Amino acid sequence: MPQKRTFEENLALAKARGQRTSALQTVVAERSLEVQLPLWAEVCRGVPNSVLRSALFGVVRRGPRSFQQRVQKASVDGVKIIHTGPQLDQADLDVWEQALQLARTGGLGCRIQFTASHFLKCIGRGNGKSQHEWLKGAFARLAASVVEIKDAHRAYFGAILSHGGRDDHTGRYVIEMNPKIIELYGLDGWSSVEFGQRMALKKRPLAQWLHGYYSSHAKPFPVKVETLHRLCGSQNLAIKGFKQDLKSALERLEKVTNWTWKIDASDLVHLSKMPTASQSRHLLKRGRFRGLP
Fold it and tell me: How far, in whole angstroms, is CA 14 from its chain's centroid?
């Protein structure tokens, strides 16, 4: 017959089992925070369509930024975005997209580590002191920005960038992205943006915004000049002046992407582009794509 355990032995065994269970629960809890983003191509950046089709990262002039208190940003029908925090521009979007790129392999909710020098290089910026200071400001703006985004059945509310730390001696950063951001992706809630093309449009915020907007459409439909003026958050209040800016931006966009465009007599902007492979599959499912003529 097996020998009976003493009270002390049973107590020690129960304690050991409890510790193993507690450790297992901790591991499971930590793993539950590691959320995998879609694995887009290395040369692209995967961005939620709700962001690309709105003025959240708008066309903002240089100079002091306004602080927005629950401001509803212009967006396409079906998307609602409320922003609290410093005004965000296209350069801030470069930073956010690169942070998402790093989280793409590391996982949302995990510690993402990098040096400021390497990060700046990835977004086409120099390595001088002013650029390092600019990057500090960009991360601060993203961390201070709280958004409420609803896109059809998808919804997210929280900081654009959860938090982070920095070692000023080594230039090393550690940041974390909120895993709940995955709610904005789903199967069809995001688009691949060719980052090389976006970098070729640097210092042209309207062209960059247009690149993101049209990248989020497999087969762009005609849209009014006034609508683009509203959606991009342009600070050029005169539609006539904006139209000139728009033509210049579309010309630059065509040189970089080979997308073709025209503005007709009704001020409708028509843009033609070849869809990506994933967008082609999406169009085939909807019966809207017949391939090349």
Answer: 48
Task: Give the separation between CA 40 and CA 100, rounded to whole angstroms.
Answer: 11
Q: Which of 138, 155, 158 is nearest to 146 (CA)?
A: 158
Q: What mean pLDDT comes out for the span 194-198?
A: 97
Joined tokens for residue 27: 């591991």
Q: Which among 69, 123, 72, 131 is positioned nearest to 101, based on CA atoms?
A: 123
**Could you give the CA distance from residue 134 to residue 131 in angstroms, rounded to a whole number?**
5
Q: Model confidence at 106, in pLDDT bands (50, 70, 90)?
A: confident
Torsion of the alpha carbons at 199, 159, 100 and 230, rounded to the nearest 10? -40
Residues 6 or more apart from 98 whose CB is under 8 A from it?
45, 119, 122, 123
Any idea which of 75-79, 103-107, 210-214, 265-269 has the lowest mean pLDDT?
103-107
Confidence label for 133 from pLDDT (cuts 50, 70 and 90): very high
Q: Check whether 174 has a pLDDT greater than 50.
A: yes
| Burial per residue of 132-171, b for 16 or more beta-carbon CB atoms within 10 angstroms, e otherwise | bebbeebbebbbebebebbbeebebebbbbbebebeeeeb
- Nearest alpha-carbon partner for 222 in 191, 193, 256, 263: 263
Q: Spell out where the chain has E strands.
A: 44-48, 57-58, 67-73, 79-86, 88-89, 112-115, 146-151, 154-159, 163-167, 172-176, 190-194, 223-224, 260-263, 268-272
**Which pLDDT tens digit goes with each residue over 61-73?**
888 889 999 999 9
Label residue 81 exposed, middle or buried (CB < 10 Å: 0-12, 13-18, 19+).
buried
Q: With the CA atoms of 258, 263, 269 and 274 taken in that order, what torsion angle do they form, in degrees rounded to the nearest 10?
A: -20
112 pairs with which residues across the strands?
A: 175
For residue 24, give the amino acid letter: L
- Answering whether pTM is above 0.70, one says yes
